[in-house]
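Subject: complex prediction, re-run

Hi both,

The earlier run crashed halfway through, so I resubmitted it with identical inputs.
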Amino acid sequence: MKSYVPHTENERREMLESIGVKSIDELFSDVPASLLLKRRLNIGEGMSEVEIRKAFLELVNKNRTDLKVFRGAGAYNHYIPSLVLELSARSELYTAYTPYQAEMSQGMLQAIFEYQTFICRLTGLDVSNASVYDGATAAAEAMVMMLNATRKKKLLLSAGLHPEVIETVKTYAHSIGVEIVVVPLNEKGMTDIAQLKANAEGFAGLIAQNPNFFGVIEDMKALADCAHELGGLFTAYVNPIALGMLKRPADYGADIAIGDGQPLGVPMSFGGPYFGFMACTNKLIRNLPGRIAGQTEDAEGNRAFVLTLQAREQHIRRDKASSNICSNQMLCAIMASIYMAVMGKHGIKEVAEQCLQKAHYLADGLTQIKGFKLRYASPFFHEFVTDCEYDAEKLNDALKAKGFMGGLPLGRVIKGEHGMLWCVTEMNSRQDIDDLICAVESIVKEGLA
Amino acid sequence: MTPTDRKYTKEHEWLLIEGNTVKIGITDHAQEALGEIVFVELPGVGDEFEIGDSFATVESVKAASSIYTAAKGKVIEINEKLDAEPEAINQDAYANYLVVMEFSEIDESQLMSAAEYDEFVKSEE
Amino acid sequence: MRKEYNLIFERSIEGHRAYDLPNIDVPVLDSLIPSEYLSETDIPLPELAEIDVVRHYTNLSRRNFGVDNGFYPLGSCTMKYNPKINEETAKLFNNIHPYADQDCVQGALHIMAHTAEMLAEIAGMDACCLQPAAGAHGELTGIMLIKAYHESRNDFDRKIIIVPDAAHGTNPATAAMAGYKIKEIKSAADGGIDLDALRAAVGPDTAGLMLTNPSTLGLFEKNIIEVARIVHDAGGLLYYDGANLNAVMGIVRPGDMGFDVMHINLHKTFSTPHGGGGPGSGPVAVKEKLIPFLPKPVVKRTENGYVLDYDRPQSIGRVKNFYGNFSVIVRAYTYLLSLGADGIREAAENAVLNANYIRSKLRGVYDIPYDRICMHEFVATPNEKMRANHVTTMDVAKSLIDRGYHPPTIYFPLIVHEAMMIEPTETESKATLDAFIEVMKQLAHEGETNPEALHNAPVTTPIGRPDDVKAARMPIVKFCE
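This time it finished cleanly. Structure:
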């Protein structure tokens, strides 16, 4: 057992003497005796490092990470340069708290300022915060921003948003009595503009995802224009890698751009920690939640960075704050900054291009197989839905036996769905894709599915 | 010197009544308590408020203070200069109003004269 | 070493590159995407060689201060040592896709289930959900659970959450975000809850009370049994802000104190690093009656192994993507396994010992407004002579930086003027505490005799005190060429 407490018994005695008590127990005399726990916690004995490693080896062996991944749906298997993990493991950064003491935290503050600049450049918008928990909570925070800016109590969500994002926004909306209307997709898999118009009365704004959950590239300009014409704001939920290629949120007039930053160098880690990025126009800066670093100078005129605009935040504004957020996902955001610094303007573009081409190569291959078709004829980026005459879960199991994590059986996340959502990234080689296509073919032939 | 041409509230706002309009600002004591003001959030022209509503926010680096109205009515003018120069309130709180409202009701029983306000500030310390 | 350090964007040289991707090996097709959807320009990201990226971030880290650099007695933040074995184990799970089939993630699900069980035991609660990503996120989840509970009983008139004036800012902000009105009650003279004020505040409109115990003054609420009775009798529930749990682990449990729901900060109490502001993790633990409302999915142990249970009709829904900040949870799990029952209790005992030791040594040197046995932290202020010399808490804090310490939390709690909230944590040695005490004494002496020196601090850092007013009046929040 170790508790990382360095004291010897002698030291402890000296300290108790200085305090003027005889025992540790006396330090807890304010606790009513009837409440004191009179037994040991039932959480087992402590373990040595050797035992910990053994225990974890067993746990690791109960996971399977040998499968070739053709699944995305909100978490993406991208190349992570070795620098990202090495540099973000600098303990001056990861063992620090929020940089409230600016003079001794210039490294972190500058890293935040740089991160904000990266996000502004990625989205084209004016202002970025220092991150929120993830894409789903970024959407919930964007909802609150739009409600406060317009003083309305209704929000539209595109059905093309990740189902878990929709669920999260609904959870937040319920507690503040906000009406949520989900605008369905049309037969092309794009947000239905006629339905948007039909449901817009009294709405604060619309959130739409690009590429959407089903992989389809949305006409974001049409959606933004439509939301604005109807008197609402527009939030674009975007995949940051796709921005290496697609129009940026500022290009089509988005008021707010959000998304999950995981594709930018953050490991999949069974769902987290990732980070949510949020950027907006200057006009909405005081509605933006969370921390923001700003540039200023010290008395000698040195450029200096500080946390700024703090009067929006909970530790000052309390119940009138723009959000209750305190901790964010800073280290993950810094990983993304390092990723963007390594990849640079050409690297992200090249990753996007490889995702696009390889996904289409797989889609072509799969749709040659009897019984498989693409659900939507619309342009897509690195994900697409197939419908087939075989049971998605059975096909998935058969693929797993052959060493593949195939497309996500959509029935797992959307009730009544039978399709599969496939994803291909730069990590999948042509050989892997060919092997996958062969595997599907042989499964279909053998009638396993 | 607290100007004697206007009335004061316990929330440290001043009201200068002229006919059916009222100018509203914050007192010198309030600006001093807040410290260096960095931002003033004002309502829109045409916004309507009830007595006791918060209609503006004044921010310093370390604090943010809601400003309440002791008058019921409609905002007919806002002090747009404060957008670029919020520090004007630090320089002269009585010369720099926040808004002008056209009012239908003011609860005068809650308002203080300059002398009463000075006493009130002393008693709070 | 006062020197500006160039931004990464200022280091960009056209044509430099640090990345290396395999060549594209599938046929490249044109016009897969209509041109109207494509950006006409490249994202203006910097171009750098690999060594330059490495040096940039290495040098940024040298301009920063973490627990690994020195003593960090930041009150309410529990800046304990972040064990290295936690970092080692966390990495083992980097490559697991969150939508991997459940038979491929039994090890990960075991970690979640076992961590939740241990946390519930420490909390004295019946179940624990790991989904919330941070303390404030856990608070929000917990308050939503309270709302769901009242609504499930067709009780829609409970609109008020009661919060003491010494509470963390997240408490009132959370209650507001969950659609509640806030009633603030003043602390009693001894720093505890004013029972009369509480009795006057509760009623049929009370949804609940949010409380930190020990409080932000570092004091254990002696009347907690009565507090719980008053709130429960009014039909309200009790929310425990777990920010200060480090003081009482294994000694007294929030569930036994009468709380119905709480969050736990894994990044404070359970040794996961703060990451310069995050990621944290804010699991929520509840009593039986709130279990049906927990966010979904919930990890369930079955005969055929662990499963993620989505079939929970009364659940409030999700509060984020996927299942929580998993690799943070792995770190906390490693810590729990390392310490075990005795280690967890020992950590709490020594956290309290260390705080009281510093308090006993600073008595008479600084003013200690509530000078009695404290829990894991206490509040001090500059003494009368220092105040007469206009030496502020800010001056003391900035002078500590020059001596190689991270300052305590300053100007909080709001109910103590010029507060310095000191939380040493259990992982600091007596030698470290003695050195800190000595420096604090020197600073008090200097403040009494030569205040100028303190006003000018810090002088050893890359920058002097920055102009916060300028930053807020004309915000520059990104780099522009």
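Chain B has four helices and nine strands.

- K.
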